[in-house]
Amino acid sequence: MSNSAGSTVIQWPESLYHTFHRKPGGGQESTHYCPGCGHGVLHKLIAEAMDDLGIRERTIFLSPVGCSVFGYYYFNCGNVQVAHGRAPAVGTGVKRALPHSIVISYQGDGDLAAIGTSNILHAANRGESITVFFVNNAIYGMTGGQMAPTTLEGQRTSTTPRGRVIEETGYPLRMSELLSTLHAPVYIERVALTDAKHIMAARRAVRKALKAQVDGKGFSMVEVLSPCPIGWKMEPSKAKEWVKEHLMPAFPLGVYKDVIAEREPRVRSAPELNVEGVEELFAAEPTVERTGEPTWEGIAERYREPQIKIAGFGGQGVLFLGSLLANVALRKNFHVTWLPAYGPESRGGTANCNVVISQDPVASPMVSKPTVLMALNGPSLERFEPHLLPGGVLVYNSTLISQPPSRKDVEVVAVPATAVADELGHTRVANLVMLGAFLGHTGMFTQAEVEVTMDQTLKQAAMMELNRQAVERGFGSVG
Ligand SMILES: Cc1ncc(C[n+]2csc(CCOP(=O)(O)OP(=O)(O)O)c2C)c(N)n1
Ligand code: SF4
Known about the structure:
Blueprint: H1 38-53, E1 59-63, H2 71-74, E2 78-81, H3 87-97, E3 102-108, H4 109-115, H5 117-126, E4 131-136, E5 139-140, E6 146-147, H6 166-169, H7 175-179, E7 187-192, H8 196-214, E8 220-225, H9 229-232, H10 236-250, E9 254-258, H11 275-284, E10 307-313, H12 318-331, E11 335-341, E12 350-358, E13 372-375, H13 378-384, E14 393-397, E15 411-415, H14 417-423, H15 430-442, H16 447-457, H17 464-477
Parallel strand pairs: 1-2, 1-3, 3-4, 4-8, 7-8, 10-13, 13-14, 14-15
Antiparallel strand pairs: 5-6, 7-9, 10-12, 11-12
The chain binds thiamine diphosphate (TPP) and iron/sulfur cluster.
């Protein structure tokens, strides 16, 4: 078979996608890795082993942060994108919840030997039945070639332009040696991706490590010395030589631990769910009293199953507005999610939250394409207006937004929320005026329903009358 570039493809593992849909608008056959990079070679070795062991259907690949962050574009199996260095912790959870799964933790040296050192150490020490592929290229590739704990003495990197100084930054960390001192791991080997001979040895190690997991033997790891021509600022062929001449002497290849044959299979059973406990947990939630069946009856079709984005500046009560709306819907027994976005916003930028209300369980609390936007200030309107779906509802605070929205394909509701709140004597209830206006316009929930929910959830009884008036004025501001 040949690919679109005209190259002959002898065999393509099922465990690798045939095209990589990294960018919208079609797949590509080449990877995003730089020419001469070891990641692609290792991907192929892992995928072939997955095919041959017949484990693709039950493999969960943990894509790390680093150059291999896009693991999920390549591996045709289950995938979890994990935070930097946290793959062994996530892998622990996955494996314990799904003992039959095959968990692959794929990590760079920045990921595994710097930020994630404690994670890998404890996962190995607990003997988690996962397989780790540790790509040691002596550098942080993705972020521009900074020093890693594995950087060699004297090696120039972007953060050690005169070469790594041992007295200042310590010795290159030898993770295979370190982890092989632990009792629990069953197999640890270091290999290199330089020439055919070494790649064949790497191939064997990859298979052996995965097979150990298939047989339920415990923690296995293959450290892979891998060229990074871009980070090292070398031609690909020179980079391979550099692995042989410099990396291999500092990180000797070989099997550091192999007790696979001696160890009995140890398969943990999935933990039993203590449903009673879970129910108690939810029951303890100080939430509203739920009533009736969730129904959109009486509400125009276009306002049903809303995906809501509420945005303003920190201090405008944007998160509270979202949570109150979520509670109103919860009280009516809808499935609801409320997802706040915290950040520097609390110091004056734009703050926002996402609310999804549905008759069915909500798959994701993220609202990237809202059907409703409530914008309390100008920057929020500017930022989220383009994302609103055609036919959606845009409620905006016309006191603070002098330039009306430009969209013609959505319903626009102007509410002088801040002016109304000022009239009531408290600028801070502008959020409730907005809520009233939104509900008044859509008919989604009644004023009485908001009031009952506020009674049940708000602690400040003294503010209740003011809050009630603000909601009422909002309802009254729309026709
Ligand atoms: C918590 C966190 N800290 C730092 C970063 C920045 N960061 C992204 S990738 C990376 C290092 C990647 O190096 P490595 O793990 O060796 O993988 P490589 O890119 O070389 O394959 C760092 C520090 C981040 N994304 N998240
Ligand atoms: S920067 Fe290095 S590790 Fe990253 S893709 Fe390029 S060669 Fe590979």
